[in-house]
Amino acid sequence: MLPLSLLKTAQNHPMLVELKNGETYNGHLVSCDNWMNINLREVICTSRDGDKFWRMPECYIRGSTIKYLRIPDEIIDMVKEEVVSKGRGRGGMQQQKQQKGRGIGGTGRGVFGGRGRGGIPGSGRGQQEKKPGRQAVRS
C-alpha cells in the first residue's frame, strides 16, 4: 500500500497532521497532490505546547513540513479492499509484464525489439543509393 493511494482514499475523512515544528492540525482532508501537499477543512490547530488552539475553516499544509499523519483504521481497510479488488498486490507488476501488452508477443514501448534504431541494416529506409565517385580499392 502506497502513502499517496492511502491519502487519496482518505479524502473527506478526518485526520490528524503533526508538523515537524510540533504543531498539530485536526480536520477533514479535502485534497492532496503528488508532493503530499494537503488541504484540510474544519481545522483545529494546536500549538506545539498544547496551550493554544485556533479554529480555521480551511488550511493548506506543505508536504515537506509534515512529520506524520494519523488516519482512521477504516481508511486503511478500504485501501486494502481496493488493492484486492484491482487484482494488484504482491507481484502484480510481474504478472502484467508477462502479458506484454501489444498483441501476440509484442514488447511494448521502450523495450528491446520495438521500432527503434538498430536491427537489420537498411530496413525501413527504402533502397539505399550508392554514392558515385568513391569506389572500394582492393589490393
TrEMBL record:
Region listing for Disordered, in residue ranges: 86-139
Chief site of localization: nucleus
Residue ranges annotated for the Sm domain, each copy included: 2-75
Gene3D superfamilies, per database record: 2.30.30.100
A GO biological-process term: nuclear-transcribed mRNA catabolic process
Keyword Protein biosynthesis: no
Top-rank taxon, per record: Eukaryota
One function term, GO molecular function aspect: RNA binding
Biased composition (Gly residues): 102-125
GO cellular component, as recorded: Lsm2-8 complex; spliceosomal complex
Key words, A-Z: mRNA processing, mRNA splicing, Nucleus, Ribonucleoprotein, RNA-binding, Spliceosome
Keyword Ribonucleoprotein on entry: yes
Subcellular location: Nucleus
Function: Binds specifically to the 3'-terminal U-tract of U6 snRNA.
Family: Belongs to the snRNP Sm proteins family.
Subunit structure: Component of the precatalytic spliceosome (spliceosome B complex). Component of the U4/U6-U5 tri-snRNP complex, a building block of the precatalytic spliceosome (spliceosome B complex). The U4/U6-U5 tri-snRNP complex is composed of the U4, U6 and U5 snRNAs and at least PRPF3, PRPF4, PRPF6, PRPF8, PRPF31, SNRNP200, TXNL4A, SNRNP40, SNRPB, SNRPD1, SNRPD2, SNRPD3, SNRPE, SNRPF, SNRPG, DDX23, CD2BP2, PPIH, SNU13, EFTUD2, SART1 and USP39, plus LSM2, LSM3, LSM4, LSM5, LSM6, LSM7 and LSM8.
Name listed for the protein in its UniProt record: U6 snRNA-associated Sm-like protein LSm4
